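Example record used in the benchmark description.
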Amino acid sequence: MDVIPAIDLLEGKCVRLYQGDYEQQQIFDENPVAVAKQWVDQGATRLHLVDLDGAKTGQPVNMKAIAAIVQAIPVPVQVGGGLRDYAKVANLLSLGVQQAIVGTVAVEQPQLVGELCREFPGQIIVGIDAREGKVATRGWLETSEILATSLAQQMAEQGAATIIYTDIQRDGTLKGPNMAALREVAEAVDIPVIASGGVSSITDLLSLLSLEPLGVNGVIIGRALYTGDVILKEALQAVGPGRLQDVPPNLGYSTFA
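Model output (structure tokens):
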């Protein structure tokens, strides 16, 4: 299983939110490039970046920091936050980001996700963030009536490479992942699912291995890495060193010579 450290960017700084609440933020580092290098040095084979400003405003804000991270590290990066039209996704991928994560448009413009998947095969991930099984959008500030499982099925049909499922009520809480919800989403689709939200220990990671046969082949860890509740090297040893799979060639790392 891939263990993917998260770097959440707010005003150019590395932060974590509690249950997606912008009023409950904790700054972990003011140099996200240094943080990215730290995780790679400890064995990370992929990083997960979120432009929190972009998720809230609908306009990517932390592109400078994202570009600097892509330039500085030799592993693939997946990025989400504020990607709500074709041009923004194309611009992000042109920076050398390997995969773009779309969320709000999956609900509001599902046909656009299909277009993006056809234009950038293997490079479009759909992030499904849910409260009590219902999809939230616009930086988790709005909750729809759409079921996460239904949206996952629709996005798989549109050609999404992967689904990232985040349980908002677990995110940043260190209370463990929502295993039942993850199982429902994984059983609903035949594409890979990445778990996100609530991981607090190696025990949580080992529990996720039970869902790997269903297609849950990755886990994003945020707060637990920054607090030291989970040590990345130990996590990699426990559930696997990570692997790059189902990814188009010649994507990802860019030296920007």
